[in-house]
Amino acid sequence: MTGSEHRVRGRERKLTGVDAKGAARRLAGAIRFRTISRQDQSNLARKEFLGLHAFLKKSYPKLHRTLHRETVNDLSLLYTWKGSDPQAEPILLMAHLDVVPVEQGTEPNWTHPPFSGTVAGGFVWGRGALDVKDGVIGIMEAVESLLAAGFAPKRTVYLAFGHDEEVLGGSGAAAVCDLLASRGARLAFVLDEGGFIRTDGMPGVPRPVALVSVAEKGYLTLDLEVRGGGGHSGMPPRRTVAGRLAAALCRLEKRPFPARLTPPVRAMFRALAREAASPYRYVYGNVRLFSPLMLAMLARTPSSDAMIRTTVAPTMLEGSGKENVMPQSVRATVNLRILPGDTRESVTARVKKVVGDPGVVVTARGQSSDPSPISDAGSPEYAALAETIASVFPDVVVAPFLMVAATDSRHFARISRQVFRFNPVRMDSGDLARIHGTDERIGVRNFGDLIAFFAALVRRTAG
Ligand SMILES: [Zn+2]
To answer: CATH no. for residue 457?
Structure first.
């Protein structure tokens, strides 16, 4: 980083009055609440969520005096910071209060216990440090510091923190959106978690890349079931239900969904082309010409392959419960992530066609969603976001991209055309593995930049 870049960064910090150390302590405090979402929501950690609510109230007094606070379905939070200009469309900053559980038996592998909320060695450690209590606390820190500086928004600013994102946001973010929609709200833009600043990501690009998601893939889970088995395992038939199901799964694996470059991925390469070294500059800048080459390159690793096709992942298998009993029926559950351009209907039809066996019954289960609409990387709202990123992180390249995982923000497409997903945190591939994994942590300085980003964004877009 050059000297002038350091000065820019110093200026943003001073402008926003970020207290990174105090903020790190408060993030650690938030991590101590075990706001865990489990697939079975019946034993929801209600007390933990209410404890976190109270902690936020106590930690951000100015915010709670100035903003209007509502709970939605008991545990999600919606804050309204009323702007002075009723004509200006509001903006919405989002994150979620819940975290994923720590996989059983892995607790001892953590450097600091996952819910201890420890600040040590320049990091805040614990479950949620990156996904995404850093966002919740970061947004609150930013608002608190803006209030301390006497800032009053022209545009209304909403803050929404759901309680069930990790189990698809059905009663949190979706209900918050219903509430805003029922009041006739139209939002200028929505910013949720999603992309990061990848410090080691892109071939041929010598600088970190801030990946701002302009779309996310759809989500669908299908059960494949074969019935009509049963009997004694000493006298098995030649053709078993398990074999029939296994053959169906093999056919799905042999015939993956076709690969293609969607508009968000094309837009990403166009943005990278401007900063890439030769020969990448030429390849990225001529995506149409090089698409067969690009598709082959992207197909090589699962993470980039997921950007170019609808994926099919077998996740659960069920058969007999006893080693010497033939199963009455067998079932495989496959989780699909749907590429923009495909739909739940079209991918279900293709799965049935590829399976090609009427004895394998295919049914949808649980929550599902089509791919999100694609937000406009040429819009003034995207430009404001990109400029804010550049002002706080002067060394990075900003590029749009396609999110392969689901976020709460997808619920908001019906009240905003510009929905973006970006968490302003520098990450390498090691950090990525910590999300939902062991030793989740965020650097204290990194966290300070995150707060500076949110404060700068509110000033730029709502001031
Ligand atoms: Zn998350």
So the answer is: 3.40.630.10
